[in-house]
Amino acid sequence: MEKVETKISRDLMEAVKARASEEGRDSEDVVEDALERYLMESSGSIVEVLERMSRGRKERGVEELSEEEAMRLAVEEQHAWRRERREQREREESRRSKP
Question: Residue 47, exposed/middle/buried by CB under 10 A (0-12, 13-18, 19+)?
Fold first, then answer.
């Protein structure tokens, strides 16, 4: 693996660290996975992307989710995203209201 130095926003880094903590992984692994997914999604057909994701999941020993589990996870993520957006707007409004 090659060491790379870059700058990212504080909020994004906090999200990376939170995800890493939730999954019991290193932040570096979360960033690498995110970059791989981004690059895969931007090239090839959806079938190719899904096949690569499936292979990666199998290589890491991650079981496929049932329809019920997938829906539950999707709803949880949607709620978390809305909560984060609401908190971000509240922080921005708070900053604007301070003299």
Answer: exposed
